[in-house]
Description:
Elements: E1 7-14, H1 17-27, E2 31-38, E3 41-50, E4 59-64, E5 77-85, H2 90-99, E6 108-110, E7 113-119, E8 125-130, E9 153-161, H3 164-174, E10 178-183, E11 186-190, E12 198-203, E13 216-223, H4 226-239, E14 247-248, E15 252-258, E16 264-272, H5 291-294, H6 297-303
Bound molecules: zinc ion.
Zinc ion binds next to strand 1 and strand 13.
Amino acid sequence: MSHNKGIHHITAVAGDPQQNLEFYTKVLGMRLVKKTVNFDDPSVYHLYYGDETGRPGSILTFFPWSHLQQGEPGRGQVVAVSFAVPEGALEFWADHLEEQNIDYMEPFERFEKQVLGLQDPNGLHLELVEDSKVNKLAGWSSGVIPSEHAIRGFHGATLAEEDYEPTGELLESDLGFQKADEHADRHLYQTDAKLGSVIEIIDQSELDGRPGKGTVHHIAFRAENEEVQRSIRKKLLDTGYHVTERKDRQYFKSVYFYESGGVLFEIATDDPGFAIDEPVEELGSQLKLPRWLEDRRDLIEADLPELN
Ligand code: ZN
Protein backbone atom coordinates (compact mmCIF):
# COMPACT_ATOMS: atom_id res chain seq x y z
CA MET A 1 0.00 0.00 0.00
CA SER A 2 1.40 3.33 -1.03
CA HIS A 3 1.80 6.08 1.55
CA ASN A 4 0.24 8.71 -0.69
CA LYS A 5 -3.20 7.16 -0.65
CA GLY A 6 -5.78 9.00 1.37
CA ILE A 7 -7.70 12.26 1.30
CA HIS A 8 -6.32 15.02 -0.94
CA HIS A 9 -8.78 17.80 -0.05
CA ILE A 10 -12.35 18.35 1.09
CA THR A 11 -14.53 21.14 -0.30
CA ALA A 12 -17.50 22.57 1.59
CA VAL A 13 -20.02 25.38 1.25
CA ALA A 14 -19.83 28.43 3.48
CA GLY A 15 -21.84 31.64 3.84
CA ASP A 16 -20.00 34.90 4.43
CA PRO A 17 -16.38 34.65 3.20
CA GLN A 18 -15.01 37.05 5.83
CA GLN A 19 -16.56 35.03 8.67
CA ASN A 20 -15.23 31.84 7.10
CA LEU A 21 -11.71 33.28 6.80
CA GLU A 22 -11.68 34.47 10.39
CA PHE A 23 -12.88 31.16 11.81
CA TYR A 24 -10.42 28.94 9.96
CA THR A 25 -7.38 31.20 10.35
CA LYS A 26 -7.99 32.85 13.73
CA VAL A 27 -9.89 30.17 15.65
CA LEU A 28 -8.49 26.99 14.09
CA GLY A 29 -5.13 28.54 13.18
CA MET A 30 -4.97 27.14 9.66
CA ARG A 31 -3.17 28.94 6.88
CA LEU A 32 -5.02 30.50 3.94
CA VAL A 33 -2.90 28.90 1.23
CA LYS A 34 -4.85 30.07 -1.79
CA LYS A 35 -7.34 32.80 -2.52
CA THR A 36 -8.93 32.21 -5.90
CA VAL A 37 -12.39 31.85 -7.45
CA ASN A 38 -14.60 28.92 -8.33
CA PHE A 39 -13.36 28.18 -11.85
CA ASP A 40 -16.89 27.13 -12.91
CA ASP A 41 -18.51 30.20 -11.30
CA PRO A 42 -15.94 33.04 -10.93
CA SER A 43 -18.45 35.25 -9.09
CA VAL A 44 -17.65 33.33 -5.92
CA TYR A 45 -14.37 32.88 -4.04
CA HIS A 46 -12.64 29.58 -3.63
CA LEU A 47 -10.70 29.70 -0.36
CA TYR A 48 -8.15 27.02 0.49
CA TYR A 49 -6.93 26.41 4.05
CA GLY A 50 -4.14 24.02 4.95
CA ASP A 51 -0.79 23.59 6.60
CA GLU A 52 2.15 25.87 5.87
CA THR A 53 2.65 24.65 2.30
CA GLY A 54 -0.81 23.29 1.60
CA ARG A 55 0.32 19.70 1.28
CA PRO A 56 -2.20 17.11 0.06
CA GLY A 57 -4.11 15.75 3.03
CA SER A 58 -4.26 19.13 4.77
CA ILE A 59 -6.54 21.12 2.45
CA LEU A 60 -10.07 22.16 3.37
CA THR A 61 -11.59 24.48 0.78
CA PHE A 62 -14.76 26.56 0.68
CA PHE A 63 -17.12 28.09 -1.81
CA PRO A 64 -18.70 30.95 0.17
CA TRP A 65 -22.06 31.08 -1.59
CA SER A 66 -23.79 33.58 0.72
CA HIS A 67 -27.14 33.39 -1.12
CA LEU A 68 -27.46 29.63 -0.80
CA GLN A 69 -29.93 27.92 1.55
CA GLN A 70 -28.73 26.36 4.79
CA GLY A 71 -27.85 22.73 4.13
CA GLU A 72 -28.61 19.72 6.30
CA PRO A 73 -26.08 16.97 6.88
CA GLY A 74 -27.40 13.51 6.11
CA ARG A 75 -27.33 10.48 3.90
CA GLY A 76 -25.30 10.87 0.70
CA GLN A 77 -22.86 13.34 2.22
CA VAL A 78 -19.62 13.75 4.06
CA VAL A 79 -21.12 14.59 7.46
CA ALA A 80 -17.97 15.30 9.50
CA VAL A 81 -14.48 16.57 8.73
CA SER A 82 -11.77 15.47 11.18
CA PHE A 83 -8.46 17.22 11.73
CA ALA A 84 -5.42 15.50 13.21
CA VAL A 85 -3.70 17.04 16.22
CA PRO A 86 -0.81 15.47 18.19
CA GLU A 87 -1.55 13.34 21.24
CA GLY A 88 -2.21 15.47 24.30
CA ALA A 89 -3.30 18.54 22.33
CA LEU A 90 -7.03 18.41 23.09
CA GLU A 91 -6.56 19.94 26.51
CA PHE A 92 -5.10 23.04 24.89
CA TRP A 93 -7.87 23.07 22.30
CA ALA A 94 -10.66 22.86 24.88
CA ASP A 95 -9.23 25.90 26.70
CA HIS A 96 -8.66 27.75 23.44
CA LEU A 97 -12.22 27.16 22.18
CA GLU A 98 -13.60 28.26 25.52
CA GLU A 99 -11.61 31.50 25.32
CA GLN A 100 -12.95 32.05 21.80
CA ASN A 101 -16.53 31.39 22.96
CA ILE A 102 -16.91 28.44 20.61
CA ASP A 103 -19.17 25.59 21.76
CA TYR A 104 -17.64 22.13 21.64
CA MET A 105 -18.38 18.60 22.79
CA GLU A 106 -16.29 17.22 25.63
CA PRO A 107 -13.66 14.85 24.21
CA PHE A 108 -14.81 11.24 23.90
CA GLU A 109 -13.19 8.06 22.63
CA ARG A 110 -13.91 6.56 19.22
CA PHE A 111 -11.90 3.72 17.67
CA GLU A 112 -9.33 4.20 20.46
CA LYS A 113 -8.78 7.87 19.69
CA GLN A 114 -9.77 11.01 21.58
CA VAL A 115 -12.22 13.15 19.60
CA LEU A 116 -13.45 16.69 20.26
CA GLY A 117 -16.45 17.82 18.20
CA LEU A 118 -17.39 21.35 17.19
CA GLN A 119 -19.10 23.25 14.37
CA ASP A 120 -17.95 26.05 12.11
CA PRO A 121 -20.04 29.28 11.86
CA ASN A 122 -22.26 27.68 9.18
CA GLY A 123 -22.86 24.47 11.12
CA LEU A 124 -20.31 22.25 9.37
CA HIS A 125 -19.42 19.38 11.73
CA LEU A 126 -15.73 19.35 12.58
CA GLU A 127 -13.65 17.10 14.80
CA LEU A 128 -10.21 17.41 16.32
CA VAL A 129 -8.71 13.95 16.75
CA GLU A 130 -5.59 13.08 18.71
CA ASP A 131 -3.65 11.02 16.21
CA SER A 132 -0.25 9.52 17.11
CA LYS A 133 0.66 9.44 13.39
CA VAL A 134 1.11 13.22 13.42
CA ASN A 135 3.07 13.53 16.70
CA LYS A 136 6.28 14.00 14.73
CA LEU A 137 4.90 16.10 11.89
CA ALA A 138 5.86 19.76 12.20
CA GLY A 139 2.96 22.10 12.88
CA TRP A 140 2.56 25.63 11.55
CA SER A 141 2.22 28.36 14.11
CA SER A 142 -0.41 30.90 13.17
CA GLY A 143 0.40 32.97 16.20
CA VAL A 144 -2.97 31.96 17.69
CA ILE A 145 -2.14 28.27 17.95
CA PRO A 146 1.34 27.25 19.17
CA SER A 147 2.92 24.89 16.63
CA GLU A 148 3.04 21.93 19.05
CA HIS A 149 -0.78 21.89 19.25
CA ALA A 150 -1.59 23.04 15.70
CA ILE A 151 -3.76 21.14 13.26
CA ARG A 152 -1.45 19.04 11.05
CA GLY A 153 -3.99 18.24 8.37
CA PHE A 154 -6.87 15.81 8.07
CA HIS A 155 -7.33 12.82 10.27
CA GLY A 156 -10.23 11.75 8.08
CA ALA A 157 -13.88 12.18 7.22
CA THR A 158 -17.20 10.54 8.03
CA LEU A 159 -19.66 9.60 5.29
CA ALA A 160 -23.35 8.85 5.86
CA GLU A 161 -24.69 6.15 3.56
CA GLU A 162 -27.83 4.08 3.25
CA ASP A 163 -25.57 1.04 2.95
CA TYR A 164 -21.87 1.16 3.80
CA GLU A 165 -20.88 -1.88 1.78
CA PRO A 166 -20.67 -0.64 -1.84
CA THR A 167 -18.80 2.48 -0.71
CA GLY A 168 -16.49 0.39 1.45
CA GLU A 169 -15.80 -1.85 -1.52
CA LEU A 170 -14.92 1.16 -3.66
CA LEU A 171 -12.55 2.47 -0.98
CA GLU A 172 -10.85 -0.92 -0.79
CA SER A 173 -10.65 -1.86 -4.45
CA ASP A 174 -9.81 1.51 -6.04
CA LEU A 175 -8.70 4.03 -3.43
CA GLY A 176 -6.16 2.16 -1.32
CA PHE A 177 -8.14 1.82 1.94
CA GLN A 178 -8.60 -1.26 4.06
CA LYS A 179 -11.38 -2.07 6.48
CA ALA A 180 -9.91 -1.77 9.96
CA ASP A 181 -12.76 -1.91 12.46
CA GLU A 182 -16.46 -1.43 13.06
CA HIS A 183 -18.64 -0.49 15.96
CA ALA A 184 -22.46 -0.53 15.85
CA ASP A 185 -23.38 1.21 12.56
CA ARG A 186 -19.95 2.84 12.10
CA HIS A 187 -17.34 1.31 9.80
CA LEU A 188 -13.67 2.30 9.81
CA TYR A 189 -11.45 2.28 6.71
CA GLN A 190 -7.77 3.25 6.76
CA THR A 191 -4.67 3.76 4.67
CA ASP A 192 -1.08 4.04 5.90
CA ALA A 193 -0.84 7.73 4.94
CA LYS A 194 0.19 10.19 7.65
CA LEU A 195 -2.63 12.61 6.82
CA GLY A 196 -6.18 12.01 5.70
CA SER A 197 -5.89 8.27 6.18
CA VAL A 198 -9.30 7.55 7.70
CA ILE A 199 -12.78 7.22 6.24
CA GLU A 200 -15.59 6.25 8.57
CA ILE A 201 -18.95 5.31 7.10
CA ILE A 202 -22.11 5.42 9.16
CA ASP A 203 -25.11 3.47 7.93
CA GLN A 204 -28.00 5.85 7.95
CA SER A 205 -31.34 4.74 6.60
CA GLU A 206 -33.38 7.79 7.56
CA LEU A 207 -32.34 11.32 6.80
CA ASP A 208 -31.33 12.48 3.32
CA GLY A 209 -28.79 15.25 3.33
CA ARG A 210 -29.69 18.61 1.79
CA PRO A 211 -26.92 20.54 0.04
CA GLY A 212 -26.25 24.13 1.08
CA LYS A 213 -24.29 26.20 3.55
CA GLY A 214 -22.58 24.17 6.25
CA THR A 215 -22.32 20.98 4.22
CA VAL A 216 -19.54 19.28 2.30
CA HIS A 217 -19.65 19.64 -1.49
CA HIS A 218 -17.20 16.85 -2.33
CA ILE A 219 -14.23 14.88 -1.11
CA ALA A 220 -11.06 14.35 -3.12
CA PHE A 221 -8.67 11.41 -2.88
CA ARG A 222 -5.01 11.47 -3.83
CA ALA A 223 -3.37 10.26 -7.00
CA GLU A 224 0.36 10.92 -6.96
CA ASN A 225 0.46 11.93 -10.63
CA GLU A 226 -1.57 11.97 -13.83
CA GLU A 227 -0.55 8.46 -14.79
CA VAL A 228 -1.87 7.02 -11.53
CA GLN A 229 -5.01 9.12 -11.92
CA ARG A 230 -5.51 7.75 -15.44
CA SER A 231 -5.33 4.17 -14.22
CA ILE A 232 -7.73 4.81 -11.30
CA ARG A 233 -10.12 6.51 -13.74
CA LYS A 234 -9.97 3.58 -16.14
CA LYS A 235 -10.67 1.09 -13.38
CA LEU A 236 -13.64 3.15 -12.19
CA LEU A 237 -15.03 3.39 -15.73
CA ASP A 238 -14.63 -0.37 -16.15
CA THR A 239 -16.59 -0.92 -12.93
CA GLY A 240 -19.41 1.26 -14.31
CA TYR A 241 -18.87 4.62 -12.58
CA HIS A 242 -19.53 7.72 -14.68
CA VAL A 243 -16.25 9.56 -14.33
CA THR A 244 -15.71 13.03 -15.85
CA GLU A 245 -12.89 13.96 -18.17
CA ARG A 246 -9.81 15.39 -16.49
CA LYS A 247 -10.19 19.05 -15.47
CA ASP A 248 -7.31 21.46 -14.90
CA ARG A 249 -7.76 22.91 -11.41
CA GLN A 250 -4.48 24.85 -11.67
CA TYR A 251 -3.03 23.38 -8.44
CA PHE A 252 -3.98 19.80 -9.31
CA LYS A 253 -5.78 17.87 -12.05
CA SER A 254 -9.16 16.38 -11.20
CA VAL A 255 -11.73 13.84 -12.26
CA TYR A 256 -15.10 13.48 -10.55
CA PHE A 257 -17.74 10.81 -10.08
CA TYR A 258 -20.66 10.00 -7.77
CA GLU A 259 -20.18 6.96 -5.62
CA SER A 260 -23.17 4.65 -5.22
CA GLY A 261 -24.52 6.39 -2.12
CA GLY A 262 -24.56 9.80 -3.81
CA VAL A 263 -21.40 11.40 -2.39
CA LEU A 264 -19.39 13.34 -4.99
CA PHE A 265 -15.86 11.89 -5.11
CA GLU A 266 -12.88 13.45 -6.85
CA ILE A 267 -9.48 12.02 -7.69
CA ALA A 268 -6.90 14.83 -7.55
CA THR A 269 -3.20 14.74 -8.41
CA ASP A 270 -0.55 15.73 -5.88
CA ASP A 271 1.14 17.88 -8.56
CA PRO A 272 1.74 20.70 -9.18
CA GLY A 273 0.63 22.09 -5.81
CA PHE A 274 0.02 25.59 -4.47
CA ALA A 275 3.45 27.12 -5.03
CA ILE A 276 2.92 27.05 -8.80
CA ASP A 277 1.75 30.69 -8.96
CA GLU A 278 3.13 32.33 -5.78
CA PRO A 279 6.04 31.57 -3.45
CA VAL A 280 5.36 29.57 -0.27
CA GLU A 281 6.02 32.65 1.94
CA GLU A 282 3.25 34.55 0.12
CA LEU A 283 0.63 31.82 -0.22
CA GLY A 284 -2.90 33.18 0.04
CA SER A 285 -1.88 36.83 0.07
CA GLN A 286 -3.30 37.76 -3.33
CA LEU A 287 -6.25 36.82 -5.50
CA LYS A 288 -4.87 34.28 -7.96
CA LEU A 289 -6.63 33.48 -11.22
CA PRO A 290 -5.85 30.78 -13.76
CA ARG A 291 -4.58 32.10 -17.10
CA TRP A 292 -7.94 31.48 -18.80
CA LEU A 293 -9.65 33.89 -16.37
CA GLU A 294 -6.82 36.45 -16.09
CA ASP A 295 -8.12 38.70 -18.89
CA ARG A 296 -11.42 39.08 -17.00
CA ARG A 297 -9.67 39.96 -13.71
CA ASP A 298 -11.12 43.49 -13.42
CA LEU A 299 -14.69 42.25 -13.85
CA ILE A 300 -14.16 39.31 -11.52
CA GLU A 301 -12.57 41.43 -8.78
CA ALA A 302 -15.33 44.04 -9.00
CA ASP A 303 -17.90 41.29 -8.40
CA LEU A 304 -16.28 39.73 -5.32
CA PRO A 305 -16.91 40.95 -1.77
CA GLU A 306 -13.97 42.50 0.04
CA LEU A 307 -11.87 40.14 2.13
CA ASN A 308 -9.33 41.19 4.72
ZN1 ZN B 1 -12.16 19.39 -5.32
